[in-house]
Input
Amino acid sequence: MRSVPWDDEFSAGSRKSGKAGPARTDFSVSESEESTSEPAAPAEAPASTAENLSPERWVEDHLDVLMGYALVRVHNREVAEDLVQETLAGAWFARNQFKTRSSERTWLIGILKRKIVDHFRRQWRERPATELSPDPEGDELIAAMFDEKGMWKDHRPQAWEDPGRAMQSREFVDALWRCLGDIPPRLAQVFMLREIERMSGKEVCQELNVRPTNLWQMMHRARLGLRLCLEKAGFGPPSGSSG
Amino acid sequence: MLTCRETTRLASDRLERRLSIREWLDLRTHTLVCPFCRRFTRQVRRMQKFFAMLSRLDDHRLAEIGQQMPADRARMVRSALET
Output
């Protein structure tokens, strides 16, 4: 698998995920209602022009949403606060570049999104994946999951209850979010960029400067860790019968 | 026959890239006889849908999550904007 040329390695995967991408529709009905009920500009965000903007108003209108957006992705309150502060301050100074035809909040979230990716990239540059040990925390995770013969140890996958209606619940979202903080941070970052930010594998590799095989290995480990965490969080059988 | 460890890797890789026919057959063969890897394969696909939800939280829910920002921090942001 590693001798295949770079672009080809990805074309299949990204085409596949691209197709599945925005149109992953096999969610429950009420959920698609939720996504149609959040069209571009939220009601409370004023259609502002550069003239009627005030910093006070900006913070009031957008701070909470931006914080929520960042927290879901970085799992660290201080980092999230820094990124949001940078975003608001940076955007405020550049507010004349804001085109009123797009929503102000969409514009801000676009800036924040870029700041989050940059934050990950900085972290990865400081501690790059080496050929010898690209992912020590992930090695531990694998060792906890499989014996030396490569068979499941203590954490064999259990049958999952169908979350069904629970998928709209606060608990469900909280569990997903908590589990992202439960696995090694680098695995969570890679997983987040792929599956929440919906970047292609190729983009993630370019942003974080990792090789495709490293990315796939980390995605495997992230999925093992997240799966176990979700099962413990109650996605599994009601009575915690293990084994 | 693949080990469970190798099988779960292929189950994950299938969401990242196109598997070769050989890999696909190996995955099928193992999951046919191993209920745990069969579950894993199904569950990672479902997880993909679950986590996609986090990218589509509406503004209201995001604001709820973000609301616990300490007041002094909010004040700092304001003053940063005003200068």
